[in-house]
């Protein structure tokens, strides 16, 4: 792939083809003969679509991108499950029928990743904020694999079929992007797909089977997402610090300037007048009225001025290291072979894998945590093996943003089943001691090529100073993001969340001004 790729403001099919063609030459992406319309794909999988329509669309995409039995199995025999709970995308689990006999599961692709059962790996909810028991019935039933269907005379049905099927996944993850906001947003999605392809090629994150305007097809390997309460467990927190450091050392062929953060907010600000104008359809008129009093242009300019007063480090960042994007399987000390520190194995679940919808009923993925929770096993007899996934927001950015954003995720729990569908516990923000230990571990891993290197307390305090500034930025950024999603069909209190985040930003801003004796 070219070291630099300049995308025009207007994205059309020819531009998309050029990007995919270039990626295909490197065998990173399989381009289907069919074309997909970005603006129609979202509708095909939206909440108005019937299960049968969703299965038909999913089957078509899988036939285009996958070989072997995927090209032969009748549509009505595919297993399709809606994985919900995310705030940005729609996710679908798609699998061949159980008796279809694919020789290799997605767990074996790329020769990495350890499999566990689907039932034991879905996220759980915190003990004090439980949700209903799950219903794990398939949304769409599967039959056998002996349907009457004309054979396709391609590589998968030739005498080489068994060789091809050695690399044939049995189950995949279909990601459909949520609502876009203008052509700039489409450009951002293309950039994201290119970066995802690069990371996949380097064995960071899940294997990529294909991308198309409106979504992508990924490797699916089930694993358990962390709980919010587990982020504070020392062993787990230190592992997260190491994983973040490993991400920050990556050299990705894209702009090294921290433009992503500012470009996102600038793009979102352009849509604010339409979103905030009087509209009786908004359910929370009090929140709308409050948000109309916020001058986002002024706040962004003020914070940008504060940041530009310093030379904060800019690195390749994840930008969304919350508990749902951190997967874990627990390995006992006896089982450890020294490989548990290998970062970012090929795992494909995300923060959006919180619940499974069955029919019109939304069921939680809460499971019995006995023998399964890191809280029960964090007594020194186990080693947390963490996998970081979902690089949707990854870009070169200020290091302090990644750190501050993660610390703030200690305070937000998205497992709530009723409005506003999240809990906020400001008292759970890490203490100075907890932050120091995290930053110390992070710096040691980031500089691990230097033997016996130890950060000084001043170096730790300097990084914590970055966190102080970007803690404000995290609140401001996600408040704007939430406003952009108020029309989303995903069930979440976007207005409420936007108010919560902007209030926290204003509180921290006032404290910062007081501490630094500044004037607004």
UniProtKB/TrEMBL annotation:
Keywords: Lipid biosynthesis, Lipid metabolism, Phospholipid biosynthesis, Phospholipid metabolism. Residues 104-162 are annotated as: Disordered. One of its GO terms (cellular component) is cytoplasm. GO terms for biological process: phosphatidylethanolamine biosynthetic process. GO terms for molecular function: choline kinase activity; ethanolamine kinase activity. Residues 104-125 have a biased composition (Polar residues). PANTHER family: CHOLINE/ETHANOALAMINE KINASE, RE24176P. Belongs to the choline/ethanolamine kinase family. This is Uncharacterized protein. The gene is 101899617.
């Amino acid at each position: 792939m070219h070291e630099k790729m300049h995308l025009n403001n207007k994205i059309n099919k020819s531009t998309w083809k050029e990007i995919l063609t270039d990626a295909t030459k490197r065998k990173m992406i399989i381009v289907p003969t069919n074309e997909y319309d970005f603006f129609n794909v979202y509708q095909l999988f939206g909440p108005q679509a019937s299960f049968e329509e969703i299965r038909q669309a999913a089957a078509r995409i899988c036939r285009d991108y996958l070989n072997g039995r995927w090209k032969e199995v009748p549509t009505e025999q595919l297993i399709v499950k809606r994985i919900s709970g995310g705030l940005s995308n729609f996710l679908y689990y798609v699998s061949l029928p159980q008796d279809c006999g694919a020789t290799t599961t997605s767990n074996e692709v790329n020769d990495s990743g350890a499999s566990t059962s689907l039932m034991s790996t879905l996220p759980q909810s915190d003990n004090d904020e439980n949700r209903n028991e799950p219903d794990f019935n398939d949304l769409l039933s599967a039959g056998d694999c002996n349907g009457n269907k004309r054979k396709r005379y391609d590589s998968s049905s030739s005498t080489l079929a068994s060789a091809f099927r050695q690399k044939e996944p049995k189950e995949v993850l279909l990601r459909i992007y949520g609502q876009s906001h203008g052509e700039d947003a489409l450009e951002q999605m293309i950039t994201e797909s290119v970066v995802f392809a690069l990371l996949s090629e380097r064995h960071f994150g899940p294997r990529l089977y294909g991308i198309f305007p409106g979504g992508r097809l990924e490797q699916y390997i089930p694993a358990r997402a962390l709980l919010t309460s587990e982020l504070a467990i020392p062993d787990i927190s230190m592992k997260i610090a190491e994983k973040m450091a490993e991400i920050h050392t990556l050299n990705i062929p894209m702009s090294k300037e921290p433009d992503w953060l500012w470009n996102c907010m600038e793009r979102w600000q352009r849509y604010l007048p339409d979103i905030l104008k009087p509209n009786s359809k908004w359910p929370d008129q009090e929140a709308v009225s409050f948000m109309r009093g916020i001058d986002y242009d002024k706040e962004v300019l003020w914070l940008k001025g504060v940041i530009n007063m310093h030379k904060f480090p800019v690195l390749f960042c994840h930008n969304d290291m919350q508990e749902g994007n951190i997967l874990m399987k627990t390995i006992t000390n006896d089982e450890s072979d020294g490989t548990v520190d290998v970062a970012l194995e090929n795992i494909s679940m995300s923060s959006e894998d919180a619940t499974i919808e069955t029919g019109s009923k939304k069921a939680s993925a809460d499971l019995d945590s006995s023998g399964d929770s890191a809280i029960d096993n964090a007594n020194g007899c186990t080693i947390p093996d963490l996998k970081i996934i979902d690089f949707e927001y990854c870009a070169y950015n200020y290091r302090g943003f990644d750190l501050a954003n993660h610390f703030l995720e200690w305070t937000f729990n998205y497992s709530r089943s009723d409005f506003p569908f999240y809990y906020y516990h400001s008292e759970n923000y890490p203490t100075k001691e907890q932050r120091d230990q995290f930053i110390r571990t992070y710096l040691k891993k980031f500089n691990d090529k230097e033997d016996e290197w130890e950060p000084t307390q001043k170096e730790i305090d300097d990084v914590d100073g970055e966190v102080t500034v970007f803690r404000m930025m995290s609140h401001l950024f996600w408040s704007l993001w939430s406003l952009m999603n108020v029309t989303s069909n995903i069930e979440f209190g976007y207005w409420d969340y936007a108010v919560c985040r902007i209030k926290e930003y204003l509180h921290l801003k006032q404290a910062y001004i007081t501490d630094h004796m500044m004037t607004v």
